[in-house]
Design a protein that fits this description.
Keywords: Cell membrane, Membrane, Protein transport, Transmembrane, Transmembrane helix, Transport
InterPro entries: ExbD
Strand order of the largest sheet: 4-3-2-5-6
Structural class: alpha/beta
Membrane topology: Single-pass membrane protein; Single-pass type II membrane protein
Oligomer: single chain
Protein name: Biopolymer transporter ExbD
Subcellular location: Cell membrane
Radius of gyration: 24 Å
Length: 233
């Protein structure tokens, strides 16, 4: 009796469906992911055991560099009505208006400059320098923020001022953020809207000055960003 021949089946696998699913998943994660903000300086935060997470919407990050330079980063809401760019544009205009009330040399901004500022995730320099800074190219702006252009002063000016009738520039910015919209006001009042991020080697007196300014503004609730402690810490 002859052997029964088993019909060989093709080993070819149609990958079309899998490729479609891969592209769909990749698109989904790209559209729903929150990308890290570009920061002008590298900050190594101190370690702690806290596992509380800072919200990703309606939050202001106060970045304190090891040299004591102050930078601010503002994120708005996912809703287009209070998107990050719209919130930043309102904050800038409010801050400049407040600044001009107490300074003889007025700052004037064009709409193009306002639009450029609205796209900045993090900023930090004297308000008087903003118009010239915003006229620079993106490459030059990055160099300035990273301290590679010594002719530019970086960092938001801050001191121990407690006279809110004549606020320093850090206080001007924080009040402008608070007054920008109801969502920002609500998160700041709850203590979730302000996150202070300082380097582990930043002198304490500099950080204390920042916290003292927040308390002067009656912003007594805020978070301190830290890295999670490991077993070796």
């Amino acid at each position: 009796m002859g052997k029964v021949k088993i019909k060989r089946k093709s080993t070819l696998i149609d990958m079309t469906a899998m490729s479609d699913v891969t592209v769909l998943l990749l698109t989904f994660f790209m559209l729903t992911s929150t990308f890290l903000q570009k920061e002008p300086v590298t900050v190594i935060t101190p370690a702690s055991v806290s596992e509380l997470k800072v919200p990703i919407n309606n939050v202001t990050t106060v970045l304190v560099s090891p040299k004591g330079e102050i930078f601010l980063g503002v994120l708005g809401d996912a809703d287009s009505t209070y998107s990050s760019e719209k919130v930043r544009a309102d904050i800038l205009q409010n801050a400049v208006t407040e600044y001009n009330k107490t300074h003889s040399k007025k700052v004037q901004l064009t709409q193009e400059q306002v639009n450029k500022f609205a796209k900045m995730n993090m900023f930090g320099m004297p308000i008087a320098q903003l118009p010239a800074f915003l006229d620079e190219s993106q490459v030059h702006q990055d160099e300035i923020m990273q301290g590679k252009r010594p002719e530019w002063k970086i960092g938001i000016p801050v001191d121990g001022n407690q006279d809110l009738a004549n606020p320093n520039e850090f206080q001007i910015w924080m009040r402008a953020i608070y007054n920008s919209n109801d969502n920002m006001e609500k998160t700041i009042k709850s203590g979730e809207g302000i996150a202070v991020k300082a380097d582990a080697d930043t002198p304490y007196d500099i950080v204390h000055t920042v916290l003292d300014n927040l308390q002067t503004l009656k912003m007594n609730k805020f978070s301190l960003l830290t890295a999670l402690k490991t077993e070796n810490d």
